[in-house]
Amino acid sequence: MLNISEKLHAAFQKQYNKPADNAFFSPGRVNLIGEHIDYNGGLVMPCAITFGTYLLVSPNNDGVFRFKSLNFEDEYTIPLKKSYEKEGTGWHNYPIGVIHHFLKDGHQLGGLDMLYYGNIPIGSGLSSSASIEVVTCFSLNQLFNTGYTKLDMVKLSKSVENNFIGLASGIMDQFAVTFGEENKALMLNCETLDYKAVDSNLGDYVLAIINTNKLRRLAESKYNERVQECGDALKALQQQLDIKNLCDIDTPTFNQYKHLITNPIVLKRAQHVVEENDRVKLAAAALSQNNLAEFGRLMYASHDSLRKLYEVSGKELDAVVEYSKTNKNVAGARMTGAGFGGCAIALVKGAAFEQFSKELSAYYLDKIGYAPSVYSSLIGDGVGVLKDVPAHA
């Protein structure tokens, strides 16, 4: 039976009538804890997962870039130019945006035949776009010896997302898929980009990723609303505190000065942000001590805060967490990402994963009316060369 690398090499040969000279992989990511605090100068704890984007590449002498994804029907061929602009809404804009930034930085590129395949569930909030950007950036950096550091690639990929694609997002996604390490979570300071790799040996547990399969129609408008509310809270606290971000203070300091925030809704938002930032520090300590029970407790506490104080959950995400609390093989669960749909994660004993998936799906179907999608992942490595033996070797 062919492994995924061999299947992709065969597909490349069929598509371009020649072997692929290079193969790369960039993962998706989940945020283990630390939600809605990245834009408040706080700590987040993402990790790379074992789903991601595969890219096979060979140079061509035709002066063109050819893009094909096994996930979509369409193919794209564009001539090598000095710059590019976004065209339409197709997936090809992500690699074109990366190419545009390389050219803008003054690098000389040549024509390439490129075959992509992603096994990240589309629309799940597991950072498929960052995965495509980073694997493209890494491959160009390797092939054309452009000398970018990992951090350079993170910043370039974020610029593609913000300035070429036109989506306002933070740096966590690109950072996690670039710097991710097997069995390590990244405790990242979103303000300074300082980070610490935290030992995260899950032992006999796996990371269950549960896609609620609910379209996140509310997420963007509510996201902007929460950013504004956090800004209002910060201004109120700055009357007496010399701080730049809400996460510059801890919970005891917040409790001392929270009377300055007179709007009760804004007060709840700020309370979540400050307490969640403290939870990330506690979670890092629990993981590094291999205390998965404490880490699971913090996951549940994080979800409760996102549900009650930040109000970005919903009946779908809540149903996943409600069921998880009844299953003795689950250490903890929480929503992950922006909320209002998307994904939840749970720490589940590997031997019980199939039973968990089956029982959760039945519970969710009964409560919500349609089924979730449940995946099992480990904590994987960041972007790199695909190590499997190619089919044509």
TrEMBL record:
Residues at the active site: 173
From the Swiss-Prot or TrEMBL record, state where the protein is found.
Cytoplasm
Q: What class of enzyme is it?
A: transferase
Record field: catalytic activity: alpha-D-galactose + ATP = alpha-D-galactose 1-phosphate + ADP + H(+)
Q: Which residues bind Mg(2+)?
A: 129, 161
Domain GHMP kinase N-terminal: start-end pairs:
93-180
| Residues covered by the Galactokinase N-terminal domain | 11-59
Q: Where is this site: Transition state stabilizer?
A: 29
Molecular function (GO) terms for this protein are:
galactokinase activity
**Quick one: which pathway?**
Carbohydrate metabolism; galactose metabolism
Q: Where does substrate bind?
A: 35-38, 223
* Domain of life, per lineage: Bacteria
> Entry's SUPFAM superfamilies?
GHMP Kinase, C-terminal domain, Ribosomal protein S5 domain 2-like
Q: Does the keyword Acetylation apply?
A: no
Q: Which residues form the GHMP kinase C-terminal domain?
A: 284-364
Q: Tell me the InterPro entries matching this sequence.
A: Galactokinase, Galactokinase_bac, Galactokinase_CS, GalKase_N, GHMP_kinase_C_dom, GHMP_kinase_C_sf, GHMP_kinase_N_dom, GHMP_knse_ATP-bd_CS
Keywords assigned by UniProt, alphabetized: ATP-binding, Carbohydrate metabolism, Cytoplasm, Galactose metabolism, Kinase, Magnesium, Metal-binding, Nucleotide-binding, Transferase
Q: What is its main location?
A: cytoplasm
Q: Which NCBIfam families match?
A: gal_kin, PRK05322.1
Q: Which family does it belong to?
A: Belongs to the GHMP kinase family. GalK subfamily.
- What PANTHER family does the entry give? GALACTOKINASE-RELATED, MEVALONATE KINASE/GALACTOKINASE
User: What function is annotated for this protein?
Assistant: Catalyzes the transfer of the gamma-phosphate of ATP to D-galactose to form alpha-D-galactose-1-phosphate (Gal-1-P).
Q: Which protein, by its recorded name, is this?
A: Galactokinase
Q: Which organism is it from?
A: Mucilaginibacter boryungensis
Q: Which gene encodes it?
A: galK
